[in-house]
Amino acid sequence: MAGRGSLARRDAVAAWLFLAPSLVLFITFTGLPVVAAFLISFTQWDLFNPAKFVGLGNYMTLARDGIFGKVMGNTAYFVLASVPAQMVLGLACALALNRGIRGQTFFRVAYFLPVVTSTIAAALVWAWLFNSNFGLINALLSAFGITDPPRWLGSTTWALPAVIVVSVWQNVGYAMVLFLAGLQNIPKDLYDAGAIDGAQGWRRFYYITLPMLSPTTFFVLIISIIGSFQVFELVFVMTNAGPANATNTLVFYIYQNGFQFYQMGYASAAAMVLFLIVLIATLVQYRLQTRWVHYG
Amino acid sequence: MARPGRNGAVDWLIFAVLLAGVIVSCGPFAWMLATSIKPDAEVFRFPPTLFTTDPQLDNYREIFSAIPFGRAFVNSLVVCIAITLAQLLVCSMAAYAFACLDFRGREPLFLIYLAALMVPPQVTIIPNFILVRSLGWIDTYQGLILPFAFSSFGTFLLRQYFKTIPKELIEAARIDGCAHWQIYLYIVMPLSRAALGALAIFAFVSQWNNFLWPLIVTTRPEMQTVTVALSTLQGQYNTDWPLLMTGSVLAVAPVIAVFILGNRSFIAGLTAGSFGGR
């Protein structure tokens, strides 16, 4: 008995020794910073003068800040346009590849290539493609007889859609791979049973594939929403949030206030808004996946 | 399956659409490469030429003198390799404790580590910047490396894998008098090569492409990583598209090469445990 007790105690000592490096790093670079970000959001702090407590001041300013309103509108537009597009295209690619089409590996690699690419490099080549004077896209448009193509990144109307296109381009492959894994988990006998009941084509897709795929779909949806709310690098390279804040998004606004204007308190308050959104999305996933989602 | 003729035609149509899709997904890379070898004058011709008849490699020389791009490459390599090795060590140690050891507080602590996955990196970036700055770590390797030396995702991934190792194996080793560090080093780690490989790939690629953190903790060009150097290049030569495309080609080439060589473990790594997040 005594032997087992000391063995358990030795296990515990070993456990904390194994955990020590991760604990130190976790507390230093994640745990404390989360608390600190929350506290800093109640201050006015430019790093050069002492921080000043302003209570909910930053949050009140955010609520009245016209640019922040525009930023949230842009971010919502970005999320609402890019998430459905990348999910539908990703699912379509996955369904096509799941038919056992020849060259499956080649297509998977080709569609996944943008996912592994540095977003900075991707944004640069797309900025060049969208260049209004010498870009390939406008050259193609004029070849099809469009004499007055949009000025894309220089246009308040077209800059955000252009950024959305690039984001969708970069993320379709990721959705595709997740959907493919989901499709391959659907038991074959379900389709056989469905075939006996006369489920073919669209009916088969609607009554078997879609419900069985719902855990994957829900997961891809939440991951895409969270990812889209964090768009930054595309905006940084392609438009620098312009023209006239037409492409300014939440994370860019945090970066701008924190590291260009040195308003650490205000930037932290905006970061808390982002945190809240991501938290809600994650909790919704956690709570609802059991209710909405059909598991096989 | 029942009607091969019809399915055959549908499959050919799908095949054609998929091929068209490849032009969209890979076209930009071809355009990057094509632009990087064009003579400057040819770039500003409208309509543009698809492929130049007069390819030249001047930009691949010029870029290393325009900015310290070679140094940026070394920096990226140092930072990515250090972070990858650190994550493999730190995460596997934590995962061993969570998967193979009994101790009070195990489940709550694991939940706290997991909860960190919900925190967007942009939330902690301001306090981390203030911390690193007050330590005098701006423009240092430790400032670039240490904040990423641990990953909740990596710990989760390895713990799931370690749990699949038969308990009997570990108990037998204990009875033979093995200490935990020996079990960890000689039994668990060698058996987990696949998971460690997936984590290594994921860590390396995400760090190679990481941008915001290296952007804010470097001020001197000599300490910039490849992605930051690329954005500096854009700031200084914003209409020199051949040069910018040259930088882009060099920035994406290593990752694409590794990806094409090992695409299976690569995709497995990047979507591991479906917990992802890029």
From TrEMBL, chain A:
The keyword Transmembrane helix applies. It is found in: Cell membrane. Keywords: Cell membrane, Membrane, Transmembrane, Transmembrane helix, Transport. InterPro entries: ABC_transporter_permease (IPR051393), MetI-like (IPR000515), MetI-like_sf (IPR035906). One of its GO terms (cellular component) is plasma membrane. Residues 72-285 form the ABC transmembrane type-1 domain. The chain crosses the membrane at residues 12-40, 76-97, 109-129, 158-183, 204-229, 264-284. It comes from the Bacteria. Pfam families: BPD_transp_1. GO terms for biological process: transmembrane transport. It is a multi-pass membrane protein. Belongs to the binding-protein-dependent transport system permease family. This is Sugar ABC transporter permease. It comes from Devosia geojensis. The lineage of its organism: Bacteria, Pseudomonadati, Pseudomonadota, Alphaproteobacteria, Hyphomicrobiales.
From TrEMBL, chain B:
Residues 73-262 form the ABC transmembrane type-1 domain. CDD domains: TM_PBP2 (cd06261). The keyword Phosphoprotein does not apply. This is Sugar ABC transporter permease. Belongs to the binding-protein-dependent transport system permease family. The chain crosses the membrane at residues 12-34, 72-98, 110-132, 144-162, 183-205, 241-261. GO terms for biological process: transmembrane transport. It is found in: Cell membrane. Its main location: membrane. It is a multi-pass membrane protein. It comes from Devosia geojensis. InterPro entries: MetI-like, MetI-like_sf. Keywords: Cell membrane, Membrane, Transmembrane, Transmembrane helix, Transport. GO terms for cellular component: plasma membrane.
